[in-house]
Amino acid sequence: MGIGPLLETYRHEIEDILRESLEHELKAFDEYKALLELVKDQEPRLEEWVREKLREELEQYDEVSKMLRKPGLIEAYH
Ligand SMILES: [Fe+2]
């Protein structure tokens, strides 16, 4: 396994950092989803582990998304 290209923008205002974090969470989710396709119905324990990671990445995405909301807004940040 190698390290993919980093999504670093070199802008470090707090909102920029959170947007980068959101991109990372989404990227991680996509990677685990691809992994799930490889192990689904073939490696039960690995499949279970990947599904847990997918849940974690979604939770982390939601947390960062909440941090990006403007005060008073309740809709998800996109
Ligand atoms: Fe994450």
Give the topology.
Blueprint: H1 14-39, H2 44-68
Residues 25, 28, 57, 60 line the site of fe (ii) ion.
General description of the model:
- Helix 1 runs antiparallel to helix 2 (44-68).
- The protein has a domain at 29-68.
- The chain is built from two helices and no strands.
- The protein is flat, with a radius of gyration of 15 Å.
- It has 78 residues and is an all-alpha fold.
- Bound molecules: fe (ii) ion (FE2).
- Fe (ii) ion is lined by residues 25, 28, 57, 60.
Give me some keywords for this one.
single chain; binds fe (ii) ion; mainly alpha; 78 residues; 2 helices
Structure classification? mainly alpha
Tertiary shape: flat
Approximate helicity band = 55-70%
- Unreliable segments (pLDDT under 50, ≥5 consecutive)? none
Distance between the termini: 30 Å
Strand proportion, as a percent range, falls in: under 5%
Mean pLDDT: 89
Q: Which hetero compounds are present in the coordinates?
A: fe (ii) ion
H/E topology pattern: HH
